[in-house]
Amino acid sequence: MIAKMTKVTFLVYHKEYDCFLKSIRDLGVVHVVTKAQGGAENASLQESIRLSARYASAIKLLQGMGVPSTESHEGDADRGEQALQQTEELLHQSQQLAHRLQAVEKEVTMLEPWGDFDPQNISRLQKAGYQIGFYVCAEKQFKPEWADLYHATVINQIGSKLYFVTITKGDTVPELEVETAKLPENSLSVLQQTVTDLKAQQETLQNKLKELAETVIPDLQAAQHRVHSQIEFSKVVLSTDTLADNKLMLLEGWIPTERVPEMTEFLRSQEVYYETAAPQPGDDVPILLENKGFFRLFEPIMRLYMLPKYNELDLTPFFAPFFMLFFGLCLGDSGYGLFMLLAVTLYRLFAKKLSASMKSILTLVQILGASTMVCGLLTGTCFGFNLYDIQLPFFQTLKESISLDNQQMFNLSLILGGVQIIFGMILKSVNQTIQFGVKYAISTIGWILILVSTAVAFAAPGVMPMGGTLHLIFLGIGVLMAYLYNSPDKNVFVNIGLGLWDTYNMATGLLGDVLSYVRLFALGLSGGILASVFNSLAVGMSPDNVIAGPIVMVLIFVIGHAINIFMNVLGAMVHPMRLTFVEFFKNAGYEGGGKEYKPFKN
């Protein structure tokens, strides 16, 4: 369900506004109506955003080193500021070293074909009146007469490339129609030693960064949280309207209705004028879901789609039981369900400091695992084996009581689809009544009468014969409601036309929606077949050896079922979500688009 919200408006004297905002932030219950204007031009806000990005980058860098923390302490924001400066300084030095190393390695690559020589020797020859030219050309470009004319000497050959020098007397170097090589000023051995030194310096800087990663990540996170608080504070300030020549500050927000007394008690100690009001049509009211117990576990799935609008029904409690059942049918293996349940239970027993959200997710996985165990008993599948082949009274009693064959599982999938779709249409009529009034729900109620009466006549002709008087009465009432109240604000002819259009959409769309639920049967069947294939491979591919045979069989069994569990659990999550978000939400008339309630707080 959606928590009731109350609109609250504050009017504060400008000199007391900062103190008031800090008090409201400490209270932590007001969702401030923020405005986009002014944020882009506010230099202080932009600087805080850039600072937050710097903290995020530093945290990501240090966490990416994979160094385990050696200290467990509460983060200190002041130490985090110093840690950011140290981290960025070390990173800057490392980047400079990397650029220099890249340049020196490039020089080494250029000089390696010429070998290791002292550049001073070249300088001495030049002072003696000899010019040395360095050239590179293809082997077929080299002319033998260059050896006589310019004393050309081949220094190296790599593939089809020749590296040669010329020695000529005078002030000019011969201009040959080949590539001229410009060599570094240092020798190859000096450059190689420089590379070694630079890599050693890089290693030293990396070790310093790792030492920081062992201790300062909590401090960086604390400092980042403080910056986030400053950003939120700045956004609230920018969302404030000014009145009376900037003397009065006007702020609007939303608060859960049940917490209004708490806020009222707090405001008695503040010199501030405030008003409360109920939401009006057109207000962008933030959404706070308040489901309890079992239904609360499925709220993350709703958030994956979108939150409802304030005047809509929260469909979380209505799709939760279906989702649990659909997951179990899609996975469809009691062994896999038992494995999920035991694995998560053991993890919860031995894990330390689980957050509330993580505990909620783990509880949901346990419930889905239990659902899979129950649904797997419909076919008797357990790790690809059939439990009902075991000749024990317990399993044989289960087989006689709840076992279903493939045709019955197929029919069950279609029945569940029809039930959920009609249930969604009932919710749609309730939603229309709440939002617009009962007359806008009459058309939907008419279609429900048509579909339900036809389904009852088909399934139980003894109660209501197909085409009998009672059935025709329900059909007639349903048709009149669907055709004459399709759009209450329009005339009767427009309503009839829209009713015909709805009939076409209902005939084509409803069939496709129901057939979509066949995937519940198909996924469970395919998963069971694949599990049995891995069992057959484990037995068939194990060698006839007392030691190696069981080892190979166990390895194939474990690896095969691990792959199957991963793929089937993924499918068992995705496809029920698809049925919920597309078929169920569409037939329930769900619009969504609500904005989450986020109170201004530390």
From TrEMBL:
Membrane disposition: Multi-pass membrane protein
Pfam families in the record: V_ATPase_I (PF01496)
Keyword Metal-binding found: no
InterPro entries hit by this protein: V-ATPase_116kDa_su
Spans traversing the lipid bilayer: 318-349, 361-388, 408-428, 440-460, 466-485, 520-541, 547-570
UniProt KW Transport keyword: yes
Keywords: Coiled coil, Ion transport, Membrane, Transmembrane, Transmembrane helix, Transport
Compartment(s) where it occurs, according to its Swiss-Prot or TrEMBL record: Membrane
Coiled coil: 188-215
Record family assignment: Belongs to the V-ATPase 116 kDa subunit family.
PANTHER family for the chain: V-TYPE PROTON ATPASE SUBUNIT A, VACUOLAR PROTON ATPASES
Protein name: V-type ATP synthase subunit I
